[in-house]
Structures are given as structure tokens and as C-alpha cells.
Write a structure and sequence with these properties.
The protein is α+β, with helices and mostly antiparallel strands and about 270 residues long. The longest helix has 20 residues, at about 195-210. The protein has helices spanning about 5-20, 120-125, 140-150, 155-160, 170-180, 195-210; strands spanning about 25-30, 50-55, 55-60, 65-70, 75-80, 90-95, 100-105, 110-115, 255, 260-265. Strands 1-6-7-5 form a 4-stranded antiparallel beta sheet, with helices on one face. The protein is built from 6 helices and 10 strands, in the order H-E-E-E-E-E-E-E-E-H-H-H-H-H-E-E. The two termini are about 30 Å apart.
Length: about 270
């Protein structure tokens, strides 16, 4: 599943190229996770002002309203002025004067939703429960610790929930917890301010490194240029069960938490 770094890498790969373009038409394919919420023809003539990210959502700002894009479990965006005819897994083409933005999503868990404004009910429903952005200036260690103190669940699951801090998905939660030396099963409310501060720094570091590496391509992720990510090649624990820890040489362990695989080192993480 594309996580925050993959979504941010995708945004950066086409945001400057589509900005300023005029929408010529929106072609919709098979139904996606949620309805578009407007007549596709009503978007013709609007201008793309820019592209932002909120958690795992891309916000395509128009001169009137905005489009919220979610990649789902297997979606990827491509932006080009020379795309081939849509295939069976191509579910929308946003055709602009600067090129076409296309969503390819074999599982159709992705979404394209129109909202009149970011505070419109449909946008609030999707974005309203999201926590603070980990790559933004509002991600404060003490506020982060205060949020953890209110959660009795294991720290890994609290990170995945996205209401304390948004976008720290499965891969990067395992990596950040290793870097901070915190076992993923530790109850969030028991983490001290000092350890929460280390985890805060680890989250920032891991996500920044992942964006720099182009995200992680475990199966089919690529950015809007069609390029894969390489962060998975430098992972310390993720998907390395049984392999030696890069720090202490003890075997990396794997467990299931909420139906998601967690990887950790029992020696380095206490």
C-alpha cells in the first residue's frame, strides 16, 4: 500500500508540471471506492492552482473547488502529454492543457472525490480525523508525547491509526521504532517523554530518507514519471525476518499486530 513517502514522492513528480493547466475534460472509467460527487463535465474550464498532500491524500486545488485523490492499496498516478489509450485498470484521466493525470489501480480501492472547498462535508469526512503532519512544522515532540499518553494500545498500532500523527504506515513505523529503540508491542501510554522525543526524531528521519529515496516499491508502486522507489533496499528491519540485525547481528523477528506484519530486533528494541 502506498504510504506517506510514496504519496509525497508522487506529488512532487507531477505538481509543478500540472500547475497552471486548464482542465479540458475528466474521463471516468469503472467506479472507484467513492463517487466523484459532481458531473465530470462541470470541471471543464477550471484551472489547476497546485497540488498539496494531507496524509495519504493528494489535494488538487482548482480555481473553484478541489479534487481529493487517494491511491488506495495498489494505485499509481501517471502524468504525461503522450499517454496510450486507457487500459482496463485505468480509472480516470484528468486531461489538462499541460498533460493528462491518470490513475491506474488494479484493485480499485483508490478514489477521486470532488469538494467545493476543503471545509465542505465530503472533505471533512475524509480529512477531519487525520493527525498532525509528521513532515510539517506542527509536529511537536511534547504534543506527540501527550497524544501517546492517552493511548493504551501498542505503540505500533497507535502510529498506524493516524490520529496522533498521520501517514506513518506499516513499513515506516517498523523502521522508526527500530531507530528509536522501542519495541512495537510497548503500550503507547507507558512511553516516557525522552523515548517519545527519540521516536519523534526517528519518524522525521525515516520519512525524510524515504522521500529522498523515492519511496518504497515492494510490488507495483511508481511515481508519476513511472520511476520506482528504493527505500526498501536500506530498511533496517522491515521484511527482514530471520536475517541478522544490521546493528547487533541477532535475527530480526516478525509478529502480527492487527493483521499487519511487524518486524523488530529483540535486542536493540526494549
Amino acid at each position: 500500500m502506498p504510504e506517506l513517502p510514496e504519496v509525497e514522492v508522487t506529488r512532487r513528480s507531477f505538481a509543478d508540471r500540472i500547475a497552471g493547466g486548464k482542465v479540458l475534460q475528466l474521463r471516468m472509467g469503472k467506479p472507484l471506492r467513492w463517487p466523484l460527487g459532481c458531473d465530470p463535465q462541470s470541471l471543464a474550464g477550471r484551472q489547476v492552482q497546485g497540488v498539496r498532500r494531507r496524509g495519504k491524500y493528494l489535494l488538487v486545488d482548482l480555481d473553484a473547488g478541489l479534487l481529493l485523490v487517494h491511491l488506495g492499496m495498489s494505485g499509481s498516478l501517471n502524468f504525461s502529454s503522450t499517454l496510450p489509450a486507457p487500459g482496463p485498470h485505468d480509472h480516470f484521466d484528468l486531461v489538462t492543457s499541460r498533460g493528462t493525470l491518470r490513475l491506474n489501480d488494479p484493485r480499485r480501492f483508490g478514489a477521486l472525490v470532488y469538494a467545493d472547498a476543503e471545509d465542505a462535508p465530503v472533505a471533512r469526512k475524509l480529512l477531519g480525523g487525520l493527525g498532525v503532519e509528521p513532515l510539517g512544522p506542527d509536529f511537536d515532540p511534547q504534543v506527540f508525547h501527550a497524544g501517546l499518553r492517552q493511548r493504551r494500545s501498542p505503540i505500533k498500532q497507535v502510529l498506524l491509526a493516524g490520529d496522533v500523527v498521520v501517514g506513518v504506515g506499516n513499513i515506516y513505523a517498523s523502521e522508526a521504532l527500530f531507530l528509536a529503540g522501542i519495541r512495537p508491542t510497548t503500550r503507547a501510554s507507558r512511553i516516557s517523554l525522552a523515548r517519545a522525543t527519540r521516536l519523534h526524531a526517528a519518524i522525521c528521519q525515516v520519512l525524510a530518507r524515504a522521500v529522498e529515496a523515492g519511496g518504497s516499491t515492494l510490488r507495483d508502486f511508481s511515481n508519476a514519471w513511472g520511476e520506482s522507489g528504493y527505500f526498501q533496499l536500506q530498511a533496517m528491519v522491515y521484511d527482514r525476518a530471520g536475517e541478522p540485525c544490521r546493528v547487533c547481528a541477532q535475527p530480526i523477528r516478525r509478529l502480527l499486530q492487527g493483521q499487519r506484519a511487524t518486524y523488530y530486533c529483540a535486542t536493540c528494541q526494549r
